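Whiteboard transcription, Tuesday session. T.W. wrote the C-alpha cells on the left side:
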C-alpha cells in the first residue's frame, strides 16, 4: 500500500485529477475476495433496511441465494463480517487521510476535501451510513464497539492535526482552542450525515456538505485570509 500511495503522489499532482481518483477508486483497494465483498455488501444492505436485529446468517444466505454453509466458509460469524467491514473502512480511511495530509493543500482545503469526498462516498453508498455512523447499535458488543471508537478517534485526530496546522500558519483562528474547533467541525459533519439518514436520504448530501463547509470556514478562518 505504501508503494501505491507513493505512485499516486507522483502521478496525480493535479488537484482535480487527484480528487477524482480518490473519489472513484479508493473503495476498490480492499484486500478481500469477490465473494467476501459480495457478502459484506449484502450485509450492509440488510443492516440498512432491517437494522442489526434483522442481520442474521439465515437472512443473509436468502438474500445472496447461498447456503449458510457457503457463507461460513468465508466468515466464522456475523460478528466477523461486521469486523471485516469496519476494518476495511478503517484501512480506507487511513489511506485516504494520508493522501490528504501529504498533499500540498492548505489546512482549509484539506477539511473541504474530506467533506467533499466522504459526502460523495456516502451519497453513492447510503447504506454505509447505517453501519459506520451507528455506533449505538454496537455498544453491547465490546469488539465492535472498540472498532467503531477507533474510527471516531482517527477522525478526531485527523481534524485536530489539520486545525492545529491551520492555527500555526495563521489560516485558522486561535481565539478558540483546536480541540473545540475539532469538535465543532467533526460534530457538525456527523450531525449533518445523521440528519440525512433520519430524513431518508431525501436531500442532496453533497450540496449540504458544501454549504456546511463554507459556513464552518466563515467561522474559523482568520480575518486576514
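and on the right, the sequence the group agreed on:
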Amino acid at each position: 500500500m505504501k508503494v501505491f500511495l507513493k505512485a499516486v503522489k507522483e502521478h496525480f499532482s493535479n488537484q482535480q485529477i487527484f480528487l477524482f481518483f480518490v473519489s472513484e477508486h479508493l473503495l476498490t483497494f480492499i484486500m478481500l475476495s469477490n465473494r467476501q465483498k459480495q457478502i459484506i455488501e449484502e450485509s450492509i444492505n440488510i443492516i440498512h433496511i432491517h437494522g442489526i436485529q434483522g442481520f442474521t446468517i439465515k437472512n443473509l444466505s436468502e438474500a445472496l441465494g447461498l447456503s449458510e454453509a457457503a457463507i461460513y466458509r468465508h466468515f466464522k460469524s456475523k460478528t466477523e463480517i461486521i469486523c471485516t467491514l469496519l476494518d476495511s473502512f478503517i484501512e480506507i480511511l487511513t489511506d485516504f487521510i494520508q493522501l490528504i495530509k501529504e498533499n500540498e493543500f492548505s489546512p482549509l482545503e484539506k477539511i473541504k476535501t474530506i467533506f467533499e469526498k466522504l459526502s460523495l462516498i456516502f451519497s453513492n453508498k447510503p447504506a454505509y451510513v447505517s453501519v459506520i455512523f451507528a455506533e449505538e447499535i454496537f455498544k453491547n458488543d465490546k469488539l465492535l464497539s472498540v472498532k467503531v471508537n477507533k474510527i471516531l478517534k482517527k477522525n478526531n485526530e485527523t481534524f485536530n492535526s489539520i486545525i492545529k496546522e491551520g492555527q500555526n500558519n495563521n489560516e485558522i483562528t486561535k481565539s478558540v482552542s483546536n480541540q473545540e474547533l475539532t469538535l465543532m467541525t467533526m460534530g457538525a459533519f456527523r450531525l449533518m450525515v445523521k440528519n440525512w439518514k433520519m430524513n431518508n436520504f431525501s436531500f442532496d448530501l453533497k450540496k449540504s456538505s458544501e454549504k456546511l463547509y463554507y459556513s464552518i470556514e466563515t467561522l474559523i478562518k482568520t480575518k486576514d485570509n
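Someone added at the bottom: The domain at 2-220 is CATH 1.10.357.10 (Tetracycline Repressor; domain 2).
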